[in-house]
Design brief:
Elements: H1 4-9, E1 21-28, E2 35-42, E3 55-62, E4 71-77, E5 86-93, E6 105-112, E7 122-124, E8 127-135, H2 142-149, E9 178-187, E10 197-207, E11 210-217, H3 222-226, H4 232-237, H5 243-259, H6 263-273, E12 280-282, H7 300-309
Antiparallel strand pairs: 1-2, 2-9, 3-4, 3-10, 4-5, 5-6, 7-8, 8-9, 10-11, 10-12
Helix pairs in contact: 5-6
Length: 346
């Protein structure tokens, strides 16, 4: 249930910010249309100082439309020592990809994690990899969102049709903060023969001798706007193939309440975006712009609020961050003196 909001409001997964997934991106490599860039970000507000050494950070790919993993890209990290850490990346395909462990063949081995300002990417065969601290690309007016949804009073949702004027502040809350980025650029053909892909991220941690699934990332802002506090852990544990059975009714109710949709209209909107199963849809043969993949400049908060409110929310006036790079690893350099994390709302 990846999201900056949930890490702030409800506490990070397993009470550990290292396991808190924030964003998933998938887009065509700017310099080579035959390659794809996958980015999985974690560590809201840059609280942690290293990746979790007992976790598996994974990007899953469904390439045959059954919402099951066909390609698994798993990243594991060494114990941090003297401010340094190393990463190894595995790729598995077919039935092996559905195992929870980091399985398959290693495609990157013992890559140095970058905790300083300078990025240290690694090239291994056709794969280019980076892991480390970077500027968080997500842009959002937290204060305006929290005021509109009245979360300070313990409510998850309000009626957006009645929010006039919308309480935008014009402040990009995350502009000065960092996150951990895992970035892999690879030949698109390695993701499978089907041009229409479903992609989702997962963080799992070893507890009591087994891996527990503690966070999940697919479409942006799902956790904030479509999940309740009560469904947080169930959502993180389950697989996308079960999403419609478990969560479709809840998503329909939210669209009915906030956008005035009928149940039939709400389900049609959900299907149009491909919201459930919760996998980021990506067809590399088409231009990348959310909901077809997701670039670092897509204003996904505006997209989601337009969907939920039936186009009843005005623009927040925010723009993408100006520190993004046109080259690998694409995420901007980390801020050297970020402010303390904001206090939880309410």
């Amino acid at each position: 249930m990846s999201n900056h909001f949930t890490g702030l409001r409800l506490g990070p997964p397993a009470e550990d910010p290292r396991l808190d997934l924030t964003d998933l991106f998938a887009f065509q490599a700017p310099a080579d249309p035959t390659r794809t860039v996958l980015i999985l970000n974690s560590n809201t507000f840059g609280i942690a100082d290293a990746f979790h050494p007992d976790a598996v950070y994974r990007i899953n790919v469904d390439n045959d439309g059954d919402a099951e993993t066909d390609v698994a890209i798993s990243v594991v990290f060494s114990e941090p020592e003297n401010g340094r850490q190393r990463a190894t990346v595995y790729m598995a395909t077919g039935p092996e990809a559905r195992e929870s462990e980091a399985v398959g063949r290693p495609i990157v081995t013992d890559a140095e994690v970058s905790f300083g300002v300078e990025a240290s990417p690694v090239t291994s065969g056709p794969h280019t990899f980076f892991a480390g601290s970077r500027s968080d690309p997500f842009f959002v007016d937290f204060a305006g969102i929290l005021a509109a949804f009245n979360w300070k009073d313990g409510k998850n949702f309000t009626d957006l049709k009645d929010v006039h004027p919308f309480p935008w502040t014009g402040n990009d809350t995350l502009a000065a903060y960092n996150a951990f980025g895992i970035v892999l650029e690879l030949p698109t053909r390695e993701l499978g023969p089907n041009p229409s892909l479903g992609i989702w991220g997962r963080a799992s941690v070893r507890r009591n001798g087994k891996l527990d699934h503690v966070d999940r990332a697919g479409h942006p802002t799902i956790a904030s706007f479509f999940n309740t506090d009560e469904t947080k852990e169930e959502y993180n544990r389950t697989e996308p193939a079960n999403d419609r059975e478990l969560f479709l009714h809840q998503a329909i109710e939210i669209l009915e309440h906030n956008g005035g949709y009928s149940a039939q209209q709400a389900e049609a909107v959900i299907d149009e975006v491909g919201l459930l199963p919760d996998m980021l849809r990506y067809d590399p043969a088409k231009p990348t712009k959310y909901p077809n993949g997701r670039t670092l400049t897509d204003h996904v908060v505006a997209d989601r609020l337009a969907m939920i409110s039936n186009n009843n929310v005005p623009s927040d006036g925010l723009a993408p961050h100006d520190d993004l790079l046109p080259w690998f690893p694409y995420l901007g350099a980390p801020h050297t003196n970020p402010p303390p994390p904001p206090p939880p709302p309410g």
